[in-house]
UniProtKB/TrEMBL annotation:
All residue ranges annotated as the MmgE/PrpD N-terminal domain in the record: 19-257
Protein family membership: Belongs to the PrpD family.
UniProt organism field: Neoroseomonas terrae
Designated name of the protein: MmgE/PrpD family protein
Pfam families: MmgE_PrpD_C, MmgE_PrpD_N
Domain of life: Bacteria
Domain MmgE/PrpD C-terminal residue range list: 289-455
Coiled-coil features, chain-numbered ranges: none
């Protein structure tokens, strides 16, 4: 029997309450057509990444660990995954799948990957509770808003403290996604946020290697959904958990220094918006390349040189890159593993120059040992560039100068990489990316069937059949 939540504290008026009222009051009818279409696109994009990531090593490790622990078996389907799980395990597996191949979307102003925590939460709980498609899509819009606004309010201070926003802020996003599916009022949403705050986790230790980064959205998704279910079961939580003295912003984003008063933060104005919409989902990017987004402007630059100037890898004497400090830090990352290679400026840019592309196929063991790439990578140097650093995180810019063996210097400045909301992938490109990722796992016919359902997801009476169509 469901229990009411005790009214343990007076209602707060800070950013936690503002977000709670936004989430509880969101109706898809309030969402403009541009943002609604963006929510469909980003759901499709995330699900493609999840389906492709279902066979990665990190996902296999999670599934083996669940089996060894004797947990997980259930009836809930998850995109790309063969086994059915309980709702929490399905959420964890789905989040891990989506982030595993560095193909998931993001929000520049918050340096966060919202799709990887929002979509698995919506799919797992939505399928279990048989919610309609309109509620499903509203939960996606709400989840993106929470992920993006909390991350934007924290970034880059949280990054320099070593926190990965996808894991830390992501738990609130997953919890609020679930809250919409469960039709919570503002008090209940605030309770979810208060419960989820104790599970915010994720460190940048992954830059030293290993596959733990892949599981950050998995952990955040599971714990966020659990916070919503604990709220349903009557567990009371603190109010104002984002901004109060011992809360999230103080712990993760420098509020303890006295430089910021997060209690007065206009949370829904954190970050930036697309000119056509006030909703954060409308201003998120999609990845055309299978690497860290901080490197995409650099890839754009060298691919443009190849196309316009005929530049080839054997003509390159040196590559000098100037970018913002958060990106430049990736100039020191090695490529001994796929995880680190996708984060490494020298490896990714060398790959773009040698292969004319940056795809999943370019990060295997043989590719990381390619002599042409290994010979070029040490000649790619990165430093902090003042203009790029000054405008970050408003833009993710890079200035690239290539000195050729015959003495030419080719220069490109890219301040907004391809795939951003202002330089977006077309719907056709989104379809091509999804089918390219999903068809090898689901088969062409089923991938196209699922895609057709996704484009009209808000018309579905029940999203459970959609979840079944997406399952491996």
């Amino acid at each position: 029997m469901d229990m009411p939540i005790p009214d343990a504290r007076a209602t707060t008026t800070g950013p936690t309450r503002v977000l709670s009222e936004f989430v509880a009051g969101l109706d898809l009818a309030q969402v403009d057509d541009f943002a609604r279409h963006a929510a469909r696109r980003h759901t499709i994009d995330t699900l493609g990444a999840m389906i492709a990531g279902a066979t990665q090593d990190a996902t296999a490790s999670v599934e083996k660990a669940f089996a060894a622990a004797g947990i997980g078996a259930g009836t809930v389907p998850m995109a790309g995954v063969q086994q059915r799980y309980d709702v929490l395990s399905a959420a964890y597996v789905g989040g891990t799948c989506g982030h595993g191949l560095e193909l998931d979307d993001g929000y520049r102003a918050g340096s966060v990957h919202p799709g990887g925590v929002v979509v698995p939460a919506a799919l797992a709980l939505g399928a279990q509770r048989h919610v309609d498609g309109e509620t499903f899509l509203a939960s996606v819009v709400a989840g993106y808003e929470v992920a993006c606004r909390i991350s934007a309010a924290s970034h880059p201070r949280a990054r320099w403290r070593g926190f990965h926003n996808t894991g830390t802020a992501g738990v609130f996003a997953a919890g609020c996604t679930a809250a919409v599916l469960l039709n919570y009022d503002a008090d209940q949403v605030e309770n979810v946020i208060g419960t989820a705050a104790s599970s915010a986790a994720g460190l940048f230790t992954f830059l030293a290697g290993g596959d733990v980064k892949r599981t950050h959205p998995g952990h955040a998704t599971r714990e966020g959904v659990l916070a919503a279910l604990l709220t349903e079961a009557g567990l009371p939580a603190p109010r104002g958990a984002l901004e109060f003295k011992d809360g999230y912003f103080n712990a993760y984003a420098g509020g303890d220094t006295g430089q910021f008063d997060y209690s007065t933060l206009d949370i829904l104005a954190a970050g930036d918006n697309h000119p056509k919409s006030r909703f954060a989902v409308a201003n998120c990017y999609m990845k055309p390349y299978a690497s860290c987004r901080h490197i995409h402007a650099m890839v754009d630059a060298v691919l443009e040189m190849a196309a316009d100037d005929g530049l080839t890898a054997d003509q390159v004497k040196a590559v000098d890159i100037g970018s913002y400090a958060v990106a430049a830090a990736h100039g020191k990352v090695g490529w001994s593993e796929m995880t680190t290679a996708q984060m490494s400026i020298p490896f990714v840019v060398a790959t773009a120059l040698v292969r004319g592309r940056v795809t999943l196929a370019d990060f295997g063991e043989a590719e990381r040992a390619d002599e042409a790439i290994l010979g070029l990578a040490p000649r790619i140097l990165t430093e902090v560039e003042a203009e790029c650093d000054d405008i970050y995180p408003r833009k993710r810019g890079a200035k690239v100068a290539v000195t050729t063996t015959d003495g030419r210097v080719l220069r490109r400045t890219v301040m907004e990489p391809y795939g951003s909301a202002t330089k977006p992938l077309s719907d056709e490109a989104v379809i091509e990316k999804f089918l390219g990722l999903a068809a090898p796992r689901l088969g062409e016919a089923r991938a196209k069937q699922a895609l057709e359902m996704l484009w009209r997801v808000d018309e579905l009476a029940d999203v459970a059949p959609l979840a079944e169509a997406l399952a491996g």
